[in-house]
Amino acid sequence: MEKLIVRQSEALHGTVRISGAKNAVLPILAACLLTEEPCTITNVPALTDVMEMAELLEEFGAETSYDGLTETMRICSETLSNQQAAEKNACAMRASFLAAGPLLTRCHQAALPLPGGCPIGSRPVDLHLKGFSIMGAVHKLEHGVVELSAKNGLRGKRVYLDFPSVGATENIMMAATLAKGTTTIENAAAEPEICDLADFLRKMGAEITGDGTDTIVIQGQKRLHGATHNVISDRIEAGTFMTAAAITGGDILLEQVRQEHLTPVIAKLTECNAKTEVTSSGLRVYRKGRLRPIQLKTMPYPGFPTDMQALFMSLAAVTKGTSVITETVFENRFMHAAELQRMGADIKIDSRSAIIEGVDSLTGTSVRATDLRAGAALILSALAARGETEISDIYHIERGYDRIEEKLRALGADIQRSKDS
Ligand SMILES: CC(=O)N[C@H]1[C@@H](OP(=O)(O)OP(=O)(O)OC[C@H]2O[C@@H](n3ccc(=O)[nH]c3=O)[C@H](O)[C@@H]2O)O[C@H](CO)[C@@H](O)[C@@H]1O
Ligand SMILES: C=C(OP(=O)(O)O)C(=O)O
């Protein structure tokens, strides 16, 4: 098993190009199942989740090809000979379940294992299923596989989500594009990745309004056609490098970022005493003075993203004073706290809140990436910790960061990959 070896590093300096967003490209790839015509997606990051998603589409009969140099994926779902996913790819990632909506609406049936993804809570799919059932589908769960069918196709309806779930909004929105009539999703998620998916669907001929608000209206079409789309940049990868600049007292220019997607992250970094500046070539993030403690609560967009929570805990761990971080989106997303404690962090978990007393410095040791963002948080802590940190289970990190060591090394970080002896 490969590991990352990270040593305390000088302040990071330089320029980094932010890749396409994992959480945008995965639903967009699933949406390619909605048409028999070819689609071309650009700014596709080379992530294991992306490759698993391509394999999943191939299981259904789609043809895919990826050119790493141009970061372009081509998908043609002309014939979908199979609507049943095997366990391997589906269980590896959460986004596998996003194939359900497209398959159900186009082929009137789908069978998908309950999805995997980051182990950060129970992560049910009841809201996805509630939407499909209101639209006329029936489902049963057998041997861990959700079997869905809608013999006469789906019908547009009003679907109220009890929580603005990102995945449920995406799945129902895709299903609605080929349903008969109008679907209205109420209490919908408003994340930028939902808008990017809606933009792609509109290019395919879908009629969608209201994405980016809590009410999305979709007018079903008889068919969709092929389209070309450039994926938005990854706001969580951007936030990770911004936090890296803050924790090391560095000065980084981020290229290809959408600053408007980073409002909560910029606000909290500013409260921590990091500075951000929009320049003609990108977003500059730097810190000169001491870090200040933070109070933050994760919320659906435009609130502070849960995917940035672990990274801010790393920052708080070395910030003098008391910080409080409250996680409201996932019920079990503090597993990184135990790993940070191994590095000397002073963190107490009280139900959904973490109370962090900043220490003067952390010390390197062997730690485990318990999930994707936990792994990235450990890298940042290791950059600021005395000595050497060995991070295992880095496959989690590879699910969502494209060449993270290469990008960090170019900024001056001391980070290497090693094989376990
Ligand atoms: C591939 C992808 O885009 N992943 C993102 C997506 O995950 P994902 O789409 O899984 O997240 P959701 O917004 O659906 O989940 C939010 C909350 O709703 C709950 N829930 C969700 C669906 C459901 O049917 N029933 C239910 O109870 C979840 O358990 C969780 O507590 O949004 C999350 C919240 O911004 C991010 O952390 C993930 O990075
Ligand atoms: C939780 C995440 O991903 P997933 O939903 O794919 O597990 C994440 O990107 O931080």
Descriptive report:
- Helix content is 32%, strand content 25%.
- The protein is of the alpha+beta class and 421 residues long.
- It has 2 domains: 2-18 and 233-419, Enolpyruvate transferase domain (UDP-n-acetylglucosamine1-carboxyvinyl-transferase, Chain, Alpha-beta prism); 22-230, Enolpyruvate transferase domain (UDP-n-acetylglucosamine1-carboxyvinyl-transferase, Chain).
- The strands form 6 sheets. Strands 21-22-1-23 form a 4-stranded mixed β-sheet, covered by helices on one side.
- Helix 4 packs parallel to helix 6 (166-177) and helix 8 (235-248) packs parallel to helix 12.
- Phosphoenolpyruvate (PEP) binds at residues 23, 93-95, 117-118, 120, 307, 372-373, 400.
- The site of uridine-diphosphate-N-acetylglucosamine has 21 residues, from helix 1, helix 5 and helix 6.
